[in-house]
Design a protein that fits this description.
This protein is mostly beta strands and about 280 residues long. It is built from two helices and 18 strands. Strands 2-3-4-5 form a four-stranded antiparallel β-sheet, with no helix packed on it. It has a four-stranded antiparallel β-sheet with strand order 6-7-8-9, with no helix packed on it. It has a four-stranded antiparallel β-sheet with strand order 10-11-12-13, with no helix packed on it. This is F-box protein interaction domain protein.
Length: about 280
């Protein structure tokens, strides 16, 4: 069952948009607690959540720096390497995974085509900008990025790039040059040449665009318009070929928030997850 909000173009009513997209969040939902680990976790833990289509199981990946106590000084901790673990929801046990080098500083976890994808730091190099974890092979792999990145000399030309899923495809969105916001879609999964630029928005117009991260949420009428989340706690609506945009501030938010597109499900979490799990309601926390 697929639920999809229908909006009439041109989109002008900010209240209508926010009511449609935020109403479900107010109604609450369900969650389960992940099992703890015996390893010592210190510092940043990179993670991701995805679905293995062949086994029909939900998976959680976490990557972190493992530390052990110094035998000569109990107050001192020693680095014990980079660790990657996978949990199959309902199994209850974390499993060590990852063959070869386990990457670091992973951002924008995205589940597409039965695999998890992350965006790496630009300092890793444009040919290694995207990393994938294959649920089937249980290992990390590099993944092809757009051809335009091959012609960029120096990572200083890349600013505020985000990655995610739009209409079932992997995307990269951000400033690929000084004064334009580009949205690239991978039309054919895993094929480098299939990366296609579907939006090229000029930022140097009379209505100046904000600097920061842009994340597309919804594309309307086969790309006629797009709704994007901006890292300054707002939503931006832009029509293809137009020079301006509509900015929707979300009032009443006291802290930073993020917006994501998703399809609501009527299937209880207890049914969706295999195994014996304890399901909690968000209002019970």
């Amino acid at each position: 069952m697929k639920l999809e909000a229908k909006f009439k173009l041109p989109l002008r009513d900010a209240k209508m948009v926010l009511d449609k997209m935020l109403d479900e969040a107010k109604n609450g939902g369900e969650f389960i607690r992940l099992p703890e680990t015996r390893k010592i976790l210190r510092g940043t833990c990179d993670s991701g959540f995805g679905y293995h289509e062949k086994t029909r199981e939900f998976k959680v990946i976490r990557v972190y720096d493992n530390y052990v106590q110094d035998p000569a000084n109990a107050k001192k901790w020693l680095s014990n390497g980079r660790v990657a673990e996978m949990l199959t929801l309902g199994n209850g046990t974390w499993k060590s995974v990852g063959v070869g080098i386990v990457p670091f500083d992973l951002r924008f976890p995205t589940s597409v085509n039965g695999a998890l994808h992350w965006l790496r730091p630009l300092s890793a190099g444009t040919e290694k900008l995207i990393v994938r974890f294959s649920f089937e092979l249980e290992r990390f792999e590099t993944f092809p990025s757009p051809l335009c990145l091959d012609n960029i000399h120096g990572v200083s030309e890349l600013r505020n790039i985000s990655m995610g899923e739009l209409e079932g495809r992997l995307y990269l969105c951000g400033k690929f040059d000084f004064d334009h916001i580009n949205l690239w879609l991978m039309k054919k999964y895993g094929v480098k040449d299939s990366w296609t630029m579907v939006y090229n928005i000029d930022m140097m117009t009379a209505q100046r665009w904000h600097f920061g991260f842009y994340r597309p949420i919804k594309s309307f009428n086969n790309g006629a318009a797009i709704l994007m989340y901006h890292s300054l706690n707002c939503l931006i609506y832009h029509e293809h070929g137009g020079c301006g945009f509509n900015l929707f501030d979300v009032s009443g938010t006291q802290v930073k928030f993020e917006a994501f597109a998703h399809i609501p499900s009527l299937i209880p979490l207890k049914v969706a997850v295999k195994g014996d799990v304890e399901v909690h309601n968000v209002h019970s926390r």
